[in-house]
Specification:
about 140 residues, mainly alpha, TPR_rpt, Tetratricopeptide (TPR) repeat protein, TPR repeat
């Protein structure tokens, strides 16, 4: 059984060795586990390290979630916008809908209900077209 300590070390070595697919894959899986445990500082560190290797929609998304969860909405918006752009480039409709939903959540937290609603509606429209049903954030 792989532990988070082991996965963190594999990720660190992959980043150091510029093994991009390994760093992205391990970082993605580890990030979801750590988000589920509310280990936001660790998620931020792993995503930031992954992003030193180049743009990665999942790393931006997870770091945005960590920022949002630790009271840094402007940084969260910036990362969610980056994730959104990358999901659009790759035509990943599920990722696009999830990013839009989280952007809406940040605006809701900032008290901008009109802007939040606009993003939520876009997310729901996309999730309806892609056949994925309601947008859910994986844990």
């Amino acid at each position: 059984m792989i532990t988070t300590t082991h996965a963190t070390e594999v990720h660190r070595l992959a980043v150091a060795g510029r093994q991009i697919p390994i760093a992205q894959d391990v970082g993605r899986g580890l990030g979801w586990v750590l988000l589920g445990w509310s280990r936001f500082a660790q998620v931020e560190a792993i995503a930031t390290a992954t992003l030193t290797l180049g743009p990665d929609a999942n790393a931006f998304y997870q770091r945005g979630w960590a920022y949002s969860s630790t009271g840094r909405p402007q940084l969260a918006l910036a990362d969610y916008e980056q994730a959104l752009a990358l999901h659009r480039q790759t035509k990943d409709r599920v990722g696009e809908a999830a990013a839009l939903s989280n952007i809406g959540e940040v605006y809701d937290g900032l008290g901008d209900r009109r802007q939040a609603l606009a993003f939520y509606e876009r997310a729901l429209t996309i999730s309806g077209r892609s056949g994925t049903g309601p947008v859910r954030q994986p844990l």
